[in-house]
Write a structure and sequence with these properties.
The complex is a heterodimer of chains A (392) and B (171). Chain A is α+β, with helices and mostly antiparallel strands and 392 residues long. Chain A has eleven helices and 14 strands. A four-stranded mixed β-sheet of chain A has the order 1-4-3-2, with no helix packed on it. Chain A has a three-stranded antiparallel β-sheet with strand order 5-6-7. The longest helix of chain B is centred in the C-terminal third of the chain and has 15 residues, at 155-169. Chain B is an alpha/beta fold. Chain B has helices at residues 2-14, 62-68, 104-114, 125-130, 155-169; strands spanning 33-34, 50-58, 82-84, 93-98, 120-124, 146-148. Chain B has five helices and six strands; from the N terminus they run H-E-E-H-E-E-H-E-H-E-H. Chain B is globular. Classes of the chains: A alpha+beta (392), B alpha/beta (171). Chains A and B meet through strand 8, helix 4 and helix 5 of A and helix 1, strand 2, helix 2 and helix 3 of B. The complex binds iron/sulfur cluster.
Chain lengths: 392, 171
């Protein structure tokens, strides 16, 4: 491990990875158990269960909601219904990679790249510039697609049919752009050790119409008092125990693109968008996500101009050692800690933004009305697939 | 006012629904497979509208997104008389995605039991067909009548698969 070391906390706290807590620069052995949130207010309550399979939920997850009639007084969640066991231990890196890509399909590039960065850290390899810039383009394309998806789902929850369809239209256009340049709509098979199987020359041009149309929808939505009113003050949360757009919407400058060295965002003069003023509600998260779409377009343009020639790909055969890779996925930090022996995985732990942000979501739902539950849930951008997963 | 422009834009967008571009997508669009082992009965009811209820048994999330993509103006599943429903009580077909997971077995069975007759099952994606790269496929007391291949299947393949299920089971 070149960048991280074991020891005392240094820098911001990111979350739990295996039996450690990951900080900006260190791994600390003081894991907090993922506890269920209790918010007892002493009113007469009745409980109901939402999930695990319900029309309004994209994935299987169960919410245990305690209410006094309209407002939610307490909420716990059970994300373990769709638990998957992924067989990667003692596998070669090349055989494990397709499985890592499928930890979370919508963030597949982020997971694959964080894993490969950890492998490269263990091997002491620094990927060449073309690979690193292409990886940035992948991650930013994934962010654009995800943010379009999240804001579209928020429009759907508000029964705003036209912007919902417009944004889903743009999401599909982004998927087709990814397919065109990377050969798969979810980047499956596009990455390798110091290797990229995609050519992103010309991607900025293809994205220009998405940029224009997204700006148009964004400005119009901000003018709709009905829409803004439904999001403002909904799901308010200000806590340092969160990552990604949720943290940035709470006014915190948390971004792995700023404080992780796995990808060279510094060469692109990246600065994160952080909400100021009234912060921490679903509206702030909506604004942050839209603004990040345009910031990602800019980053893709800059990264495309720095694409060079690819040197040569790395081999995993002899890699032995320990490494960490940390990437800013669309929902926040994704990190992998791997131990390798002769190119085989001996130990692997992962930190995902969904697992870090789920307790924050539970807290934020308290004292909101159930009818606004969906705005709040969608605005967190949590994927259960990356929580309900075990490496075996 | 912007709102009015939206209304017009909305109409324009809906005008963009695509025909099935067989040649363009010949590589990535696969053919859905009709399960020859399943007993397929034919019903009058499936001739017109067809309602789908989806259950995620253990996906990576990509199959969920591709199924949702059918609602985008590109595919617009409603034009073919296909609809998503939020409750199994209104569903004609149960769309299963993802691998077998122990805790979802009961939810799957409950959803299938809650559906009114006639009803059928569609398995979407490599995980639901065979377990794919991840595990085993979900087991139900009834078999799927159509399998939709892909990891994840292209939305065109999904549309074709659902239409196939409707076609083989309607009189
Ligand atoms: S079939 Fe592929 S895309 Fe679908 S859930 Fe399984 S791994 Fe994900």
């Amino acid at each position: 491990m070149k960048i991280y070391s074991y020891g005392k906390p240094i820098g911001r706290k990111i979350g739990t990875i295996g039996e450690y807590t990951l900080y900006e620069k260190t791994l600390v052995k003081d894991v907090e158990a993922l506890s269920e949130t209790e918010n007892e207010n002493g009113d007469t309550k009745f409980n109901f269960i939402y999930g695990p399979s319900a029309g309004g939920l994209t994935e299987s997850v169960l919410f245990n909601i305690s209410t006094t009639g309209e407002s939610i007084k307490n909420m716990t969640s059970n994300p373990t219904f769709k638990m998957r066991n992924l067989k990667v231990l003692n596998k070669k890196i090349e055989s494990a990679l397709p499985i890592i890509e499928r930890v979370n399909g919508p963030f597949s590039a982020a997971h694959a790249i964080a894993f490969l960065s950890a492998v490269e850290d263990a091997a002491g390899i620094r990927a060449d510039k073309n690979t690193l810039m292409s990886r940035i383009i992948e991650i930013e394309l994934e962010r654009i697609r995800n943010h379009l998806h999240v804001v579209a789902r928020m429009c759907e929850a508000a029964a705003f049919g036209v912007p919902y369809n417009s944004l889903f239209y743009l999401r599909e256009m982004t998927n087709r752009t990814i397919d065109k340049y990377a050969g798969h709509r979810y980047f499956f098979g596009a990455n390798g050790i110091n290797e990229i199987r995609a050519d992103f020359s010309g991607v900025t041009n293809t994205l220009s119409c998405i940029d224009r149309e997204a700006k148009d929808v964004y400005n119009t939505l901000l003018e709709s008092k009905i829409f803004v009113d439904r999001l403002q003050d909904n799901g308010k949360i200000i806590t340092a125990d969160c990552v990604g757009p949720v943290a940035r919407a709470s006014g915190l400058k948390f971004d792995a693109r700023l404080d992780s060295q796995s990808l060279p965002y510094k060469e692109l003069n990246f600065s994160p968008i952080v909400e100021e003023g009234i912060v921490g509600d679903a509206m702030s998260r909506f604004i942050i996500r839209f603004e990040e779409i345009f910031r990602s377009m800019e980053l893709i343009r800059k990264a495309e101009s720095q694409l060079g020639r690819h040197n040569k790909s790395g081999s995993s055969r002899s890699i032995t050692g320990e490494g960490i890779g940390r990437i800013e996925s669309p929902s926040g930090d994704v990190a992998y800690l791997v131990k390798l022996n002769a190119g085989k995985i001996k130990k692997i732990s992962m930190l995902t933004p969904s697992a870090v942000n789920l307790p924050a979501f539970q807290k934020s739902a308290v004292n909101n009305v159930f009818t606004d539950f969906h705005f709040n849930w969608e605005s967190f951008g949590i994927w259960i697939s990356e929580i309900a997963v075990k490496f075996v | 006012m912007k709102t009015n422009i939206w209304f017009l834009k909305g109409l324009r967008k809906f005008g963009r629904t695509e025909k099935y571009p067989a040649e363009k997508y010949a590589q990535s669009v696969m053919e859905p497979i009709v399960n020859s082992n399943a007993t397929v009965k034919k019903f009058e009811q499936f001739k017109r509208s067809f309602y789908l209820y989806q259950v995620d048994s253990g996906t990576c999330g990509a199959c969920n997104l591709e199924l949702q993509a059918l609602q985008t103006p590109h595919y617009d599943l409603n034009r073919l008389g296909l609809f998503f429903t939020n409750t199994p009580r209104h569903a004609d077909a149960l769309v299963i995605m993802g691998v077998y997971s122990e805790k979802m077995v009961k939810a799957l069975e409950n959803a299938y039991d809650a559906m009114p007759e006639p009803k059928l099952i569609i398995a979407l994606g490599a995980c639901a067909m065979s377990g794919g790269m991840i595990g085993k496929s979900p087991r139900l007391s009834k078999e799927a009548i159509v399998y939709i291949p892909g990891c994840p299947p292209n939305p065109y393949t999904i549309l074709k698969g659902i239409m196939k299920a409707k076609e083989v089971s309607s009189k």
